[in-house]
Batch of 2 targets.
Target 1
Amino acid sequence: SEVGPQKERVVTEEEWLQKWETGNIGFHKEQRHPLLQKHLDVLLNGRSGLRIFFPLCGKAVEMKWLADMGHSVVGVEVSEQALKDFFSEHSLPYYEEPVPEISGGKIFQSTSGNISLYCCSIYDLSSSIVGKFDGVWDRGALVAVNPRDRQRSVNCIV
């Protein structure tokens, strides 16, 4: 069975970046996730103007959807290609700046200011850099993280 070996598969950062560079991103979905649409009221809980975190965001279409509703979106993704594709595919103007606290880290910020995407490892982020969040949307980040690193990645989010 493929399930056993795949369950413990370790994907290197280089392999992940290669997937984005070659467009081998079958995990990316062009449509909003139906569970987020169905349970959006649970995430929002009647609140507006939330800060919502997207770990390993890729170019998730839900980021623009929530930003269009007036929420602030903060994502983190190691692939610069994914972040540039996100802004390009949604025709969103943006600028990029280095993140001084993160060696080699960059932030891609929409000119409207409500979408901030960090290009770095999730393990390089801290609340002193990105602040606090009102909610988190993880469509598949946890399963993309190597099994031995899952608890560490959860600790970065909470």
Note: The radius of gyration is 15 Å.
Target 2
Amino acid sequence: MAEAYFPVGPGLGMEENFLSLDDILMSQEKLPGRAESALPRLAVLLGQGAGSAASIPEGSKLEIPLWLAKGLHDSKRRIISVELPKIYKEAWRTVFSADANVVDLHKMGPYYYGFGSQLLNFENPENPEIAQTILQATRGGPVLPVSDSVCSLQTFIARFRRIMDSSQNAYNEDTSALVARLDELERALFQVGQKGLNDFQCWEKGQASQITASSLVQNYGKRKLTEVDG
């Protein structure tokens, strides 16, 4: 029987996939910011007024959903300015470089990697570091020698190794404690590792006729063929 819903993966980098439930949920995450001009009729939407016609005065501090911040952001008109969330600032990069595995990414932001890549849509002097930390790590691109980015990239690498080790050593066990501190991307990686382990165990016991390639590997191969044809 065919499934009624086929999960759609999130977008890559600064582009969102609006068919992805993960990206829709990520777009609700809030950014700290400031109103650089008066914002008419937005007070209720941002929880700063009671009437539908209420406006937000210029200079007001804001907590803006990502989708609205991207819509209002205009470098020429200066409607709003967006600040860097603390989890992406230099102080936290120092914590990551000391021991990446101690950080509860799900508590700090369940879409740490995806949300971080969306920050590149806004002007910020730390964007090069964020790009190296988030975008290049998740897409597997080349690592450029930009200030603290090498230590930050090691954050993803260190956590990835531990995630895959955990997923391969937890067979028929309660894994809720193992995934509690992971962001959504890391949880997806953990699930991929668990599925691979379970499929192998079934094959080893003679409960499966063959081992098939992961859908991630298949999609990667299709993407490379498309790039060659293009």
Note: The chain has two domains: 8-49+56-83, 86-136+151-208.
